[in-house]
Write a structure and sequence with these properties.
With 471 residues, the chain is α+β, with helices and mostly antiparallel strands. The protein has two domains: 258 residues, PAS domain (Beta-Lactamase, 2-Layer Sandwich); 153 residues, 2-Layer Sandwich (Alpha-Beta Plaits), CATH 3.30.70.270. Helix content is 52%, strand content 16%. The protein is built from 13 helices and twelve strands. A five-stranded antiparallel sheet has the order 2-1-5-4-3, sandwiched between helices. A five-stranded mixed sheet has the order 7-8-6-11-12, sandwiched between helices. Helix 2 packs antiparallel against helix 6. The longest helix has 63 residues. The two termini are 56 Å apart.
């Protein structure tokens, strides 16, 4: 902790001393402190090699710490993606999303259909998934022979804790077949009424391995830069003496700030030659670490199929835009876009055709919207669009333009050319709601009305007739 100059020096006591003399005017003998100041550069020169060796080791340790931080960032990003995927699966399993048959039992109450659903996910994503009931018995598993068994793979009872309080958790499951353990994410199954009826267990070891493999080049660069920094620091310690203490102090402080997570920290030194090269290597390492973190952040906020923002990023941006609109009084609109009869398209042509349709719709959204607008895939065949600074008329015009563009967009899949239509619900701030959740509900009710009105149309809350809320 640093203190103000007055706090470090303290108050003066007694008569003021004249320069070169004492308080009573007599000449004072040379002070020992001045002799120490003369000898200090010599002492620093003698200890400089040791200091440079210490700094070189610090840079090497910093490189190792950066590698460990990259591993930690990869694991955190894998946890975020696994939680998002597990929550999407849990929502499908526990809540009836079929607007045409709201009385149909939820997926977790239909064992055969639930097993087929998990098998389809495993075929497409190669992710090990289990659905567990409140009694800890397995309701469905990618390995059907495990169904009805009691789940005992959580050594500290993480699954039981999630079944009690509904919080998502991660743990490492170990077995004779996997002695090193597999990374597991557990999320609660919640019904529309918020009741916990079970849990979804998703293995995210493959996700973590993919992210670690993607960062292998960065780790090699970090270690190479650290070793280069070690060699350069030793050379500079023996070849340069003037100004090294100042520059090394700057470099050490920069290393400390980088180790504390300040990714934009760069070393600014006055020296040239080897020390300048060391600073360049350090800055290159810092830039690569920042770039790798940016890539991991992009993975965490993007939908892997369409490249649009995912639900989590969309909700965060919605909260920001609501706060901005509240401060400035600027308008804000929200569109909910849902593809019509998408399940029938999947059933007839297969999931790859459905994926092609989703990518085509995402391309239409990017092309038709402004740069300030934010399209996102919220899950399945549902998209959301934020329209900052858009009044009601502009929002309805944008929705109609999107609807027409989606209907006119040909989807080429193998030898067939497909088309899809979309129903769109529009709502705007603050006429329909003054919170993010309220605006989502208003747009969702308008979307449901568009479905009831025959699909392939745009509705707003003024078009909504009294009807039960969609599940």
């Amino acid at each position: 902790m640093s203190f103000p100059r007055w706090a470090r020096t303290g108050p003066r006591v007694g008569p003021r001393a004249l320069p070169g003399g004492t308080a009573n005017g007599t000449v004072a003998p040379p002070r020992p402190r001045r002799r120490a100041l003369v000898a200090a550069p010599l002492a620093r020169a003698q200890t400089l090699p040791v200091a440079f060796l210490a700094v070189a080791l610090l840079i090497l340790l910093l490189g190792l710490a950066a590698v460990q931080e990259q591993y930690n960032a990869s694991r955190h990003a894998a946890q975020i993606e696994a939680q998002h995927l597990a929550e999407s699966i849990a929502h499908t399993v526990a809540q009836n999303a079929d607007v045409d048959d709201v009385n149909r039992p939820e997926l977790y109450q239909q064992p055969d259909r639930l097993q087929r659903y998990l098998s389809d996910i495993y075929r497409d994503l190669r992710r090990s998934i289990e659905v567990i009931g409140l009694d800890r018995r397995i309701l469905a598993d990618v390995l059907p022979e495990h169904v009805a068994e009691v789940f005992t793979g959580d050594p500290h009872g993480e699954v039981g804790a999630t079944l009690r309080d509904g919080r998502s958790r991660t743990f490492t499951e170990r077995s004779p077949n996997h002695p090193r353990g597999t990374l597991q994410m557990v999320v609660a199954l919640r019904t529309d009424q918020g009741r916990i009826v079970g849990a979804v267990l998703l293995e995210y070891t493959p996700i973590y391995r993919e992210l670690v493999a993607a960062g292998a080049g960065t780790r090699r660069v970090i270690l190479t830069a650290s070793l280069a920094g070690l060699v350069l620091a030793l050379l500079v310690g023996f070849l340069r003496a003037r100004g090294l203490a100042r520059d090394l102090g700057q470099l050490t402080r920069a290393a400390g700030r980088l180790a504390d997570g300040h990714d934009h920290t760069r070393a600014q030194v006055r020296g040239r030659g080897e020390l300048g090269e060391l600073a360049t290597a350090f800055n290159d390492m810092a830039a690569r670490i920042a770039a790798q973190k940016a890539v991991l952040t992009e993975v965490a906020i993007s939908d892997p199929l369409t490249g649009l923002h995912n639900r989590r990023a969309f909700q965060a941006r919605l909260a920001e835009e609501i706060a901005r609109a509240h401060r400035s009084g600027s308008p804000l609109a929200l569109l909910m876009v849902d593809l019509d009869r998408f399940k029938a398209l999947n059933d007839r042509y297969g999931h790859p055709a459905g994926d092609a349709a989703l990518r085509s719709v995402a391309a239409v959204l990017k092309h038709e919207l402004r740069a300030v607008d934010l399209p996102a895939r919220l899950g399945g065949e549902e998209f959301g669009v934020l329209l900052p600074d858009s009044h009601s008329q502009a929002a309805l015009m944008a929705a109609e333009r999107l609807r027409a563009a989606i209907a006119a967009c040909p989807i080429v899949y193998q030898a067939a050319t497909l088309t899809v239509t979309a129903s769109i619900g529009a709502a705007w701030y603050p006429s329909h709601a003054d919170t993010g959740e309220g605006l989502l509900r208003a747009a969702d009710r308008a979307l449901y009305q568009a479905k009831r009105a025959g699909r392939d149309c745009v509705c707003s809350p003024i078009d909504v007739q009294p009807a039960p809320e969609r599940a």
